[in-house]
Amino acid sequence: MRNLTLVIALFISTISFSQIDAEHLEIGDAAPLITGTDQFDNKINSSKILEGNKIILIFYRGNWCPHCRKHLKTLQENLKALNEKGYAVVVVTPEKVEKTKETAEKFGSTFSILHDADNTIMNNYKVAFEVNEKSVPNYFSATQKKLAEYNAENNNVLPVPATYIINKKGEIEFVHYDPNYSNRFDVTELLK
After folding, report:
1. How does pLDDT run along the chain (192 residues), one tens digit per residue?
2. Residue among 149, 140, 139, 46 nearest 94 (CA)
3. Whole-model pTM?
4. Distances (CA, A) of 38 to 91, 160, 172
5. In sequence order, which residues have a C-beta less than 8 Å from that of residue 27 and are 6 or more positions away?
6. What angle (nearest 5°) sits at the alpha carbon of residue 130, between those of residues 180 and 120?
7. Which residues neighbour 58 within 8 Å (Cβ) at sequence distance 6 or greater?
């Protein structure tokens, strides 16, 4: 039964990759300000971070997503090396604050995870999309159940799991934006 479930999940992930195909921010664009409070109750302000570091900004759907869990694990495993290369990491999610804390505990995450109140950051970076039967046709009801559990009340929005690198001038210098939720930027590429 477990193998059958895995095969079905793989099949769904390959046929349902077109969640959204919207205009998004590009290399050279000014990066919108990122503010919020992370899972450690630290106030985050991207303009302050950029005084000393570049920012790797990652959007993830929730710790209910196996691709997100794998991505966050790889990020944590390489965090020290990324910091040594001058990158600060900020992760943004629509998950409730208590879920961001749960995620950090689960993965031993020491990078900042921000609950995106009112989807402000996701909208500013043009990665937000409404979950409906058109945007998530093959597993809509299962996703709705996860959003009801993990997101703030009546928040039926997810991000395309994008990665942006913001330079010290506040400009976007790298974009990985792929509507296929299973394709993520491999942060180890920055360490080569």
Report:
1. 444 343 334 333 333 333 455 688 999 999 999 999 999 999 999 999 999 999 999 999 998 888 999 999 999 999 999 999 999 999 999 999 999 999 899 889 999 999 998 999 999 999 999 888 887 767 788 888 888 889 987 788 999 999 999 999 999 999 999 988 889 999 999 998
2. 149
3. 0.85
4. 9, 20, 22
5. 172, 173, 174, 175
6. 100
7. 71, 75, 89, 90, 91, 92, 161, 162, 163, 185
